[in-house]
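The instructor's notes for this session suggest beginning with a concrete chain rather than abstract definitions. Hand out the sequence below and ask the class to guess, before any prediction is shown, which regions might be ordered.
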Amino acid sequence: MLLIGEKQELTVVKEVSFGVYLADPEHEQDRVLLPKKEVPPETKCGDRLRVFLYRDSSDRAIATLREPMLTLRRTAVLKVREVTRIGAFLDWGLEKDLLLPFHEQTARVSEGDECLVALYLDKSGRLCATMKVYHFLGKHSPYQMNDQVRGRIYEISGNFGAFVAVDDRYSGLIPKHECTPQLRVGAMVQARVTGVKEDGKLDLSLREKAYLQMDEDAECVLDTIMEYEGVLPFDDKASPELIQREFGLSKNAFKRAVGRLMKQGRVEILGGRIYARDVKRN
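After discussion, reveal the predicted structure:
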C-alpha cells in the first residue's frame, strides 16, 4: 500500500530507462516511480529503499530519497518561497514546493516569511500545508507550573486569546485578557506556564508573578498618567475593557499597580481621577 505524505520502505520491482518502480510486496500492483536521477548506483530488482511519497507537478504519485522537512500530520517551520493567486508556496526540501492555500492561513504571509504549518491531505488527495495546527500539536510537554517557555503564536482568537506552539510542538494559550494589539501571528514570545490542563495543554502568561510584575506595571501606569499631563480621567473603578485598552492590563493588575504608586506617594485618587503628585488640579 502506498502512503502519500509518509516515509516507507518499498521494494524495487521494475527497472526502466527513466528510473525504477517501487512497490509493497503485498500490493505489487500499486507501483510508484523513483526517477532515474535519484536511483542509487547498482540498484537492482529486489532491493529495498526507504523513500518519501508525494505528488509531482502532474499530480502523479512519485518517490524520492530526499528528506522532507515535514511528513503527514506533523508540524514544522517552513519558509515562504512565493505567494500566488491560489496561496503561498513553501520550501519543504523537495523539488516541488508545498502549497499553503489562503483558506488555511491564520494570517496572510509574504515571501521570505517563516510559518509553522502541518501537513495534510486535501479532499483530492493532494498534500497541502495548514497554519491551523491546533489539532496537530503535542499535549504532553515536559513543562510544569512557573516554567519559562518560548513559543510561536500561530493563531489569535477574539474569544480565547493567542494560541502558541511552545517549542513549535506543544499546545499553549495566552488568555484573551493578556492579548495586546502588538501580538501577531508568527511572533515568538517568552512566557510563563500558569497551568497544565488535564489533557496536557499549557496555560501561559506573558507576565511574571504578581509580586514581581507589580513594579513594572506601576511604572507603566505612571508613564501613561504623565501622557495625560498628570491627570488620568478615570480611576481604578473603571471598566476592565477601558483598562485593557489603555494599559494592556487586567483590572486586578491595574489596581495593584495603582496601589503600589499610592503607597509610594507618587499618585492619589480624587473625584474619580488619578493624579500624579504635585500636579495642579482644576
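Then share the key points. The longest strand covers residues 7-16. The chain has a mean pLDDT of 89.
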